[in-house]
Amino acid sequence: MLQNYCESMTSYVRRKSRVVNIGDVPLGGNYPIRVQSMTTTDTLDTIGTVEQSIRMIEAGCEYVRITAPSLKEAENLQNIKNELRKRGYKTPLVADIHFTPNAAEVAARIVEKVRVNPGNYADKKKFEHIEYTDTTYESELERIRQRFVPLIKICKEHGTAMRIGANHGSLSDRIMSRYGDTPLGMVESALEFLRICEEHDYKQIVLSMKSSNPLVMVQAYRLLIEKMNAENMNYPLHLGVTEAGEGEDGRIKSAAGIGTLLEDGIGDTIRVSLTEDPEFEIPVAKHLVSRYNDRAKHTPIPAINELPYSPTQYTRRETREPANIGGKNHPRVVADLSAKDTITQAALFGIGHSYNTTSGIWKTLDQGADYVYTGNHVISFTLPDSLKAIYDFSAWKHAKQAHALPFFGSIDEYVSATEKSDELNFVSLKIEDISKPSFDKLNKDASLVWIVETNNLHGMAEERRILIELLSKKYDTPTIIRRKYDTASEEEVRLYAATDVGALLIDGMGEGIWLTANVPVKSLNSIAFGILQATRTRISKTEYISCPSCGRTLFNLQKVTAEIHERTLHLKGVKIGIMGCIVNGPGEMADADYGYVGTGVGKITLYKGKQVVQRNIESEQAVEALVTLIKDNGDWVEKPSES
User: Fold this and answer.
1) What pTM does this model have?
2) Is residue 514 within 8 Å of residue 482, measured between CB atoms?
3) Could you report the per-residue pLDDT of 116-129, keeping only the tens digit for each?
4) CA 391 to chain CA centroid, nearest Å
């Protein structure tokens, strides 16, 4: 199989897209990757929206998106635009439209760009399955065409650009009935609208494929590009993971999805959707984008002639199972304590292990590291039963401890070693090693685990190239992905590791994570488990699908999200959707076990899966009602004690 979703999987090249003019800030072509965000104020609050927009712009926002849920908000965009221009700000404005074509038609005469969602522009979502013949389906497309063409004509007349933004959570019943809840359904939903635009020679189009699940999001964009290539289209792409959440989890989930695509030169503008004030999204987006300013200068990587897996369908690489690594085991986490002068029991507290001094018993938490690397430092105390130490080979052969395993810094060191572990041997594997004869021989060693490493500026692609070699040769040796970030800040490590390791996990590669950086070990451990959670390869805590808020939000989303986190963060594996309004609510929460959705001022509706359980609960009682709902359905456990 040859890939055709990016220019190259081994040489960094930006995807060639057409230029779309959005005010004075063109998008696509050779222009920089743009960063953008969306206001959270009431659109009828002109001054509040203007002042928040200015904070966003001064943080580096290049396009400001504002919701227009009805005609009156669409009309007020003119007042907002006038006030911004009066204050000297010329940043293009984007109207965000759901359900209201009449509002889109008004907004398109005012702002530089409109965003429409094909899932709800001309359709209503009732979660109904409908059987269509080709004739009845075509009649539905004609209905959509008649509803959509007036907007196209207005955009052409006023020089207004358009984003056709498909959301995984708001696919229409019509699309769901024909294509299912799939990346293909997202792509076809957008292409139906895009083909109508092309029929009318309107090409000022940007496309997006958003999902709260980074795997679905990545697969949808790749599939979209393949479909566009087949039809000789090259429209620019807006990247984003929708409803990513807040704090570290939101950043990691966003980076895993957006970063995976940026690594392959895909993406012309990005929005990081956090449940935080929008100006805080911009620095995160800029961190993600800035990595690619000089990426083309990377050391060359051997080309890939054939791809041994599908980039649009998830399949986990099959490996053998030495000890607890590989096979059907979830990916393992290696905590790196090698920089510490001495290793004490307290050093393990930050990596998910606690010790009761009275009973002398260790307790491993859900985010407890599986292995600890100490370099040449030998541990002098008894480790938790679930934890083993990895020493450099020179220290291991002298320590001869039952809980310790050796790390060999090169293939040559491993081949020449006279002593090896009967259980597990960790061996460094770099790109130059895959051409050595010993590489092929060692893959027959049942005790070996490869530690895949790189120093390449284009490190993800180089590690992927190593893993593709293993796949192509059908070698089943498990691998742990090691990445070193010697000069990166904690925020950069969080985003870069989520990109570099997350991209491989999204494609089913890698049986573990090993992060090395000059940041607290506790943070590295949290980041590693966060990446596994975001890529859904190892669930260790509650999963939140939390929208970033906007002018449609009917309650204080940040405050409520914090309250729900406080009550439910210990519910490992439970997925909770927290939505400010009904736009993406039940659809985007289709992946969630429980949903908390604003449906009126001070009113909340609770969902179990896609089904409404309680309507119009007073917001003051709603969090407690959510907890009761979880308890009633048998998914509640009490918080573990801190001791």
Assistant:
1) 0.94
2) yes
3) 999 989 887 666 77
4) 33
